[in-house]
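INFO worker-7 received task bundle
INFO bundle size: 2
INFO processing item 0
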Amino acid sequence: MNEYRELFKDLVAKIFMKKISKTELTQELKDFFDKIKSKSPKEIKRIRKLAMGQNIPLKEKRKLFCRFCLNPYSGKEKIRIKNKNKIVECLHCKKISRWKINS
């Protein structure tokens, strides 16, 4: 857990010192979202802000965490599919997120 925090701090330091390019940041974001289950809401909030600062869209990655409390989805949430919409209820804040299903 501590090694992830150190890596995260290094990433934040690189970005704020402008020593990281956009392509490097996209690779770091990919690595971050591969291990999102072990991340805290504070880390997710920082990564979102970094992506927004560099104009990098999260696209499908934004569906991996709650947009209200920023906790990562565990896979045990209540999920409903109705009228071409996917409805997910967060376990932590009980808020509902809705996304269109493209088919």
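INFO item 0 finished
INFO processing item 1
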Amino acid sequence: MPITTTAILPAPVQINFNYKILNTPVPNYIHSVAASKKSAPKNSGTVTRFKRYFSLNAALVPLGNTGITPPAQTLTAEFIDAEMNFYGAYVIINEQVALTVQDPVMNALADRLGDCLRLTEDQLLRNTLAAGAFLVDCVGGVNGKIVAVIKSFLIGLKLLPGSAGDNKAQASLSCAA
């Protein structure tokens, strides 16, 4: 009688299924670093209006010691409307689970939906940033503030060695906009 070895067993019998679910590799979502998130009040519609003031001209008229009133300037502003869009995904699952809070399939499903949310958010932010101006040409500036902001941004993304404390300027992304 021949000896049965694993070499002569059919392929489905040779496979041992491990019920341990492996981690799914995900990218580093970096585009939300430059985003400014705003919350909208409940039942307030889908359009948010922002207001931005324009800069004043330089005050080049000397006042001297006479106490004269300098020429008046007009403060002007613009309104920018942002319309909110809603995105979503769902998964159809055909598996009976005993306890939904402890089932590894449901936990993995929740992780995948969370990753889908971050991936969607990152790609939408990337597209928005790519559609806007990303380069600031400074003419006659000597304080290096924009350079410090860009350097801090690159350090924050770990694309440049160093720490954010290396810059003397108050580096924040909001002052670059």
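INFO item 1 finished
INFO post-check item 1: The first helix runs from residue 11 to 14.
INFO post-check item 1: Helices lie at 11-14, 104-131, 145-156.
INFO worker-7 idle
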